[in-house]
């Protein structure tokens, strides 16, 4: 079996278990980022960095296709993009809150659970990367917090 055939087999298994489709991913991504853009905490982080939302949304659809369905459509470097951002645990918590609510609203339970599980892993990984980028090594279950002056608490 080739790598491409193996990937297709894995994707088909996920689709069979969860019902996730590319159309569902697109609906989830667009609805989620509509909430993000209006959010007083995380909206400004995005708005100062994204001037043209259509390419970003297309990239996020490819990202979630790769994450949720193992399609391999995304070829970016999310850690590198997130490390310099002025964000901490509170931002990741809010991102997850909005994502989880959107997934629960739009997706069948098995699909929502699949998306949410992956979102939690992504948030944890990115939070550790952001902390590391600021010279902070987090202990197990430790969260990254910036003080108002920009230092870590």
Automatic annotation (TrEMBL):
Q: Do you know which Gene3D superfamilies this protein is assigned to? A: Globins
| Cited Pfam families | Bac_globin (PF01152)
Look up the coiled coil feature and give its residue ranges: none
Q: Which SUPFAM superfamilies match?
A: Globin-like
The UniProt record lists the keyword Metal-binding:
yes
Q: Does the keyword Heme apply?
A: yes
- CDD domains from the xrefs? TrHb3_P (cd08916)
Domain of life of the source: Bacteria
> Which terms are listed as keywords in the entry?
Heme, Iron, Metal-binding, Transport
Spell out the molecular function terms from Gene Ontology. heme binding; metal ion binding; oxygen binding
Could you say which residues bind heme here? 56
Q: What is this protein called?
A: Preprotein translocase subunit TatC
Question: Whose protein is this, by species?
Answer: Bradyrhizobium pachyrhizi
């Amino acid at each position: 079996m080739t790598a491409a055939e193996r990937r297709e087999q894995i994707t088909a298994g996920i689709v069979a278990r969860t019902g996730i489709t590319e159309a569902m991913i697109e609906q989830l991504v667009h609805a989620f980022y509509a909430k993000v853009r209006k959010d007083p905490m995380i909206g400004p982080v995005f708005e100062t960095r994204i001037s043209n939302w259509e390419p970003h949304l297309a990239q996020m659809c490819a990202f979630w296709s790769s994450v949720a369905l193992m399609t391999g459509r995304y070829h970016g470097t999310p850690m590198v993009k997130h490390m310099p951002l002025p964000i901490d645990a509170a931002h990741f918590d809010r991102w997850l809150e909005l994502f989880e609510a959107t997934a629960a609203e739009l997706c069948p339970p098995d699909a929502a659970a699949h998306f949410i599980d992956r979102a939690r892993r992504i948030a944890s990984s990115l939070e550790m990367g952001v902390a590391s980028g600021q010279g902070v090594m987090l202990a197990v279950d430790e969260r990254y917090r910036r003080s108002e002056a920009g230092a870590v608490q």
